[in-house]
Write a structure and sequence with these properties.
It contains four helices and five strands, in the order ββββααβαα. With 128 residues, it is an alpha+beta fold. It has a five-stranded mixed β-sheet with strand order 1-2-5-3-4. Helix 2 packs parallel to helix 3. The chain is elongated, with a radius of gyration of 18 Å. The chain starts with a strand and ends in a 32-residue tail after the last helix.
């Protein structure tokens, strides 16, 4: 099996992964997954597609991720891994699609408007 290259996006985060057969190591920006995402919840998010297919120890994954925060980066990596698993075996789509791992989440932060404190929040009204 050759190296599979896929991309995943979430909020402002962009993750590029390179997946090949191996022993199950995941490297994010030249660091181990445990070091890059110390939170166990974020590690679980990244591993969800592999856990559903029970393929956790079949692939070595190298990830380059930039932009956004930790949650957005973890979810971008999850999308990229799911896309790569579908390319390995198209039948994997039947297991990943109902879980929502193949859907690009389009929600982004709304920009701040002038005359407002945030995007929609107004300044406090003073009657006197």
């Amino acid at each position: 099996m050759a190296v599979i290259n896929k991309i995943g996006r979430r909020k402002k985060s962009i993750a590029r992964i390179y997946m090949q057969e191996g022993k199950g190591s995941i490297t994010v920006n030249n660091k181990e997954l445990d070091n890059y995402f110390p939170s166990e919840i974020l590690q679980t998010i990244v591993n969800q597609p592999l856990t559903v297919l029970e393929a956790k120890s079949n692939f070595d994954i190298k990830v380059n991720v930039r932009g956004g925060g930790t949650t957005g980066q973890a979810e971008a990596i999850r999308l990229a891994i799911a896309r790569a698993l579908v390319e390995v075996n198209p039948e994997n789509r039947l297991a990943l699609k109902p879980e929502g791992f193949l859907t690009r989440d389009p929600r982004m932060v709304e920009r701040k408007k002038y005359g407002r404190r945030k995007a929609r929040r107004r300044f406090q009204f003073s009657k006197r």
